[in-house]
Amino acid sequence: MLNKKIFLDGVVIIVNNFNIASQLTFDIKQDSPFIKLHFELEGKIDFQPNNKNDISITIEDDQYNFFYLPIIDGVLNWYSGIRKSVEIECTEDFIRKIFKNDFYKISGIFGKALREKTAFKMWEEGEKIPKTLKPVLDNIIKKSQEKETDLPYLESEIIKIFLYMFSKINNKEKTNSQLYLSAIEQEQITKVETTLQKNIQASVTVEELAFAIGINRYKLNRNFKHVYGEPIFQYLTRLRMEKAKEILSKKSMNISEVAYEVGYKNPQHFTVAFKKYFGYVPSKLK
Predict the structure, then answer these.
(1) DSSP secondary structure string, the chain?
(2) How do residues 148-173 score in pLDDT, each as one tens digit?
(3) Residues 136, 245 within the same domain
(4) Which of 174, 192, 223 finishes a domain?
(5) What is the pLDDT of residues 140-151, one digit of tens each?
(6) 62 in the same domain as 42
(7) 281 and 167 inside one domain
(8) Do residues 76 and 25 make contact, with C-beta atoms less than 8 angstroms apart?
(9) Are 148 and 127 in contact, with CB atoms under 8 Å apart?
(10) How many CA atoms lie within 13 A of 273 on its CB side?
(11) What is the Cα–Cα distance from 149 to 21, expressed in whole angstroms?
(12) Domain containing 160 — which CATH number?
């Protein structure tokens, strides 16, 4: 059974992993604002407000949602079975610190809800957890189980999640109609993502990827970002950095060897990229 709370400045991370024999129901009442990112990896929860005009929230297996409640007054249900979740509760000040003076420009409908003190949830129903965020959530879970928690590292992972979330909020505002991809287009993008996963060492261009699946570069970039939430090479850099960190943590390899394993011919270029991504040099993990 795992039920771990980690406290950062303005953030509480809650990692759950346990089995519930029968449904649990909690009466929840709170007069202060509540901002939360909830990832339900396995299981189901829902919140039903006592005031039927307030928003209800249901999140099931492999779903997530982001919401703000000016006050809380209702019933929280945890359903029977295995529950695995990562929950991130934060203050408005924490999010403001990430975006600084650009907060209201970037925060969109969420920022408007804060100003007007009206309830907000990003998705009407729980949204499927994007592949982009799953390695970040895995890292948070692993770090939560260590004896000495690396708080700066966890904060950097939380910031990554919020940067992703606010890019989704902005994209959602730009158009009411989501880009529609046909089954063939979905298959093409999945094929590209699989290629990136299997060829972290290789040097590959967008033109080569586009040619391999039979579409132009512009369409590939647009469709890939729509599905995975970030440009192709930002996604590839993340794969490389996460793989490099895993190797450095588990294997006795020097920096040059690790750089080569993740597609960098020049170890210094790798070190610069690693520090830019994580905020510290790779030798810190050795």
Answers:
(1) -EEEEEEETTEEEEEEEEEESS-EEEEEEESS-EEEEEEEEES-EEEEESSTTSPPEEE-TTEEEEEEESSEEEEEEE-SEEEEEEEEEE-HHHHHHHHGGGHHHHHHHHHHHHHHT--EES-SSPEEPPTTTHHHHHHHHHHHTSSS--HHHHHHHHHHHHHHHHHHHHHHHH-SSPPP--HHHHHHHHHHHHHHHHTTTS---HHHHHHHHTS-HHHHHHHHHHHHSS-HHHHHHHHHHHHHHHHHHHS---HHHHHHHTT-SSHHHHHHHHHHHHSS-GGGG-
(2) 888 988 998 999 899 888 877 766 55
(3) no
(4) 174
(5) 999 988 888 889
(6) yes
(7) no
(8) yes
(9) no
(10) 23
(11) 30
(12) 2.60.120.280
Q: What is the rounded radius of gyration, in angstroms, for the C-alpha atoms of the chain?
A: 20
Q: By the 8 A CB rule, do 62 and 84 touch? A: no
What tokens were used for 90? 């934060």
- What's the pTM? 0.63
What pLDDT does 178 receive?
Answer: 54
HSE on the CB side for 168, CA within 13 Å? 19
